[in-house]
From TrEMBL:
Stored InterPro entries: NAD(P)-bd_dom_sf (IPR036291), SDR_fam (IPR002347)
Entry annotated with the keyword Heme: no
UniProt xrefs under Pfam families: adh_short (PF00106)
Protein name according to UniProt: Glucose 1-dehydrogenase
Annotated keywords: Oxidoreductase
NAD listed as a keyword: no
Gene Ontology terms for molecular function: glucose 1-dehydrogenase [NAD(P)+] activity
Organism encoding this protein: Paenibacillus auburnensis
Enzyme Commission number(s) from the entry: 1.1.1.47
Top-level division of the source organism's lineage: Bacteria
Length: 282
């Protein structure tokens, strides 16, 4: 299957670290011009987890890719609108939108009864997550609809395991809200030929996960808990495969899991493994 995205323009929100970084890098490797947004910018800031939009765009440019980093707090609608305005002025089109912005990890996501959880989770997960993705769609979809050729793609990164309860009520609500948002938009955008797909990774080795287990990407295989984990490039390769699939409208509105897409499209993780789907423990 061809994965050449030359001539395509992509926007990846929340791309400083984690899944966003992995997706942005893989889209650029496939030839897309990638805009990436995030609140972390400039040189590495003391006390902050590794990764800024500037460090990611530098990785893209040094590897021969093309793109631009834009500082954006997606809880501020005017900043989100400004991002889309810049893409419109510079490119006049948007082919791939990856809604990955997420503020839900500001507090530990504990598996406790709802009444024992801090209510601050709502703002972190819904204002800086669900609503931020909603408003990115609001400003970006008119530009995507005006692009001259069909075959557009909107991705919502989420977590989904056939509607099993995830264990934290706020997290479960937020992630399933993104699944439902994708479905509703898929219905509204069918006539435009724009596929809208909620995409669920498995046990990802994000910077937060590696830090919490006292390791890094070079030494993760020494940690038993990470034996079945996947790199953030794995979800990036899933996005590339979907973007390149001429028949992706057959999947619109349907939640997809990265492990199953690896089987469907034949891609592997960076270590050559085809990591199976991670399932919520019964």
């Amino acid at each position: 299957m061809m994965t050449n995205l030359q001539g395509k323009v992509a926007l990846v929100t929340g791309a400083s670290r984690g899944a966003g970084r992995g997706i942005a890098l893989e889209l650029a490797k496939a030839g897309a011009y990638v805009y990436l947004t995030g609140r972390s910018f400039g040189a590495q800031q003391e006390g902050r987890r590794k990764g800024t939009v500037d460090s990611v765009i530098n990785e893209i440019l040094l590897s021969g890719g093309e793109g631009a980093a834009i500082r954006c707090d997606h809880t501020q609608d005017s900043q989100t609108e400004s991002v889309v305005r810049q893409i419109t002025e510079e490119q006049g089109r948007l082919d791939i939108l990856v809604n990955n912005v997420w503020g839900g990890n500001e507090l530990p996501i504990d598996s406790k009864p709802f009444w024992e959880l801090p209510t601050e989770h709502w703002g972190n997960m819904f204002d800086a997550g669900v609503r931020a993705q909603l408003m990115t769609n609001y400003y970006a979809i008119p530009l995507m609809r005006s692009s001259q050729d069909s075959g557009g793609l909107i991705i919502h990164t989420t977590y989904w395991d056939r509607y099993k309860y995830i264990g934290n009520l706020y997290y479960d609500l937020a992630k399933n809200a993104l699944v439902r948002m994708s479905y509703g938009l898929s219905v509204e955008l069918t006539a435009d030929g724009i596929a809208v797909i909620p995409l669920s990774p498995g046990w990802m080795r994000t910077e937060l996960v590696l830090e919490s287990l006292g390791t890094d990407e070079a030494r993760w295989q020494e940690v038993e808990e990470l034996k079945s984990s996947e790199s953030t490039a794995y979800i990036g390769r899933a996005v590339v495969a979907l973007a390149a699939d001429a028949d992706k409208m057959a999947l619109t509105g349907i939640p997809q899991q990265v492990g199953e897409l690896a089987e469907k499209y034949g891609f592997t993780d960076i270590d050559g493994r085809r990591v199976p789907v991670f399932h919520v423990p019964e």
